[in-house]
Design goal:
Number of strands of chain A: 1
Order of helices and strands of chain B: HEHHEEHHEEHEHEEEEE
Shape of chain A: rod-shaped
Helix content of chain B: 10-25%
Largest sheet of chain A: none
Number of helices of chain A: 3
Oligomer: heterodimer
Largest sheet of chain B: 8 strands, antiparallel
Number of helices of chain B: 7
Strand order of the largest sheet of chain B: 5-4-11-10-9-8-7-6
Radius of gyration of chain A: 29 Å
Strand content of chain B: 25-35%
Distance between the termini of chain A: 73 Å
Distance between the termini of chain B: 37 Å
Structural class of chain A: mainly alpha
């Protein structure tokens, strides 16, 4: 009897575990709202991304061509690495 | 700033790329504008912002610029430019050929291309105090040395393999390679303008990223990312190929990774890829800060229509052959 009770308890626990497992698998460990909060905090602020609002040419050759064609001066940002990829 | 910039042809260029380039007009232009040293008159670096006519006549230049100073410089240079006779302004190369684009063809149109934004310091915390305002009332917004933008690419083949066709809810997928490794070794190098040497594989004390399938709705597979990136580089070698750069100091990061991704099995591409890694970072070159500081990384899909979104990853040459 005791043995049967033990089996039953184990089966109930296993079933509960399966249910819990299925529920846990369907829900993210970190709630969506909490993740969104972290994402907003880590994402660039408007001020940090200000320079990216400029319509940059990805290289000098392309910028030079536009300057020649449109009678405009060149603004060249020259950095170690590419400023757009590392600043 | 944006409005003012529309009066210029604005270009970004990496010094190493330009030096290695065979583009005749661009090299001639660079030689002309740096004839008297760099933007601040320095001889050991060409870094800076240069305003010039297309023929290479320098209108203004500067380094360590904040938004206000740069805007003032742009206004003055524009006034100078517009005051010149048209004949003088139009001097310059008659025709400019396409620049070499060694890595442009590698952009993973149907793979995974993300922006990697790193920040030393919390928005609200230490390291995020407004920079000291200069004599001219500096606006800290334009060139903030504590933040860094980079990109990371994963080929179509490898990106698709990250989510197997039969992936189902509860599956746990190992994304340590290639995503975790690329993010750690090549994406966490930007400790606020510390220079761009990658971490070595042996620097990875812990580098694990996994994606758990939290739902499948039709073709849409939703995933939650988690993991840890702990790197420690104790070497003190100079940055390879940059003999003038001071030796590296010990550097490292200890980051907890979390994220969300959505993969469309029909389109066979990621429709969402948001990853946040937060923790501490320290060290870099002697040009960068030392000591533990809050460090965060934000990874998001690029906009392929935006030229900046197609910028090659800084350290692409280290993994281009196995993209």
């Amino acid at each position: 009897m005791r043995r049967q009770q033990g089996h039953l308890a184990a089966r109930v626990a296993a079933a509960a575990g399966l249910l819990l497992g299925a529920a846990a698998a369907a829900a993210p460990n970190l709630p969506e709202e909490e993740f969104e909060r972290k994402l907003r905090a880590a994402a660039p602020t408007e001020a940090e991304a200000l320079w990216r609002s400029i319509a940059w040419h990805p290289n000098l050759a392309s910028g030079l061509r536009e300057a020649v064609e449109s009678d405009r001066p060149v603004l060249l940002w020259l950095m170690n690495g590419n400023p757009a990829g590392f600043c | 700033m944006r409005e003012l910039s529309e009066s210029f042809a604005c270009a970004l260029e990496g010094i190493e790329d330009l030096r290695a380039s065979s583009h005749r007009e661009a090299k001639r232009f660079l030689k002309a504008i740096t004839a008297d040293g760099n933007a601040s008159g320095l001889r050991f670096t060409d870094q800076g912002v240069y305003l010039a006519t297309a023929s290479g006549e320098l209108l203004a230049a500067g380094n360590k610029l904040d938004g206000e100073r740069l805007a003032k410089m742009m206004r003055e240079a524009l006034e100078d430019f517009e005051g010149r006779p048209e004949k003088e302004r139009s001097k310059g190369p008659k025709k400019v050929s396409d620049g070499p684009d060694r890595y442009g063809k590698l952009f993973p149109e149907d793979g995974l291309a993300v922006t990697v934004f790193t920040r030393l310091g919390d928005v609200e915390g230490e390291g995020r105090r407004p920079r000291r305002r200069g004599r001219r009332g500096a606006d800290p917004g334009f060139l903030d040395p504590r933040v860094n933008f980079d990109t990371l690419w994963i080929s179509e083949k490898k990106a698709r393999a990250m989510v197997p066709r039969g992936a189902k809810a509860e599956d746990v997928l190992d994304w340590s390679e290639p995503f975790g490794q690329r993010l750690g070794l090549f994406g966490c190098v930007g400790t606020a303008r510390a220079l761009g040497a990658p971490y070595a594989e042996e620097d990875a004390k812990e580098l694990q990223v996994e994606a758990r399938v939290v739902g499948v709705d039709g073709d849409e597979v939703r995933l939650e990312l988690s993991g840890r990136i702990t790197l420690l580089d104790e070497s003190v070698e100079a940055v390879p190929g940059r003999s003038r750069v001071p030796a590296q100091k010990t550097r490292g990061v200890d980051l907890e990774v979390t994220g969300r991704a959505v993969f469309d099995r029909d389109a066979r591409r990621f429709m969402r890829f948001d990853v946040v890694a937060t923790g501490t970072g320290h060290g870099g070159s002697s040009l960068g800060p030392s000591g533990d500081r809050p460090y965060s990384v934000c990874v998001q899909l690029v906009d392929p229509e935006d030229p900046l979104g197609r910028t090659k990853p800084l350290l692409i040459e280290h993994y281009a052959s196995k993209l």
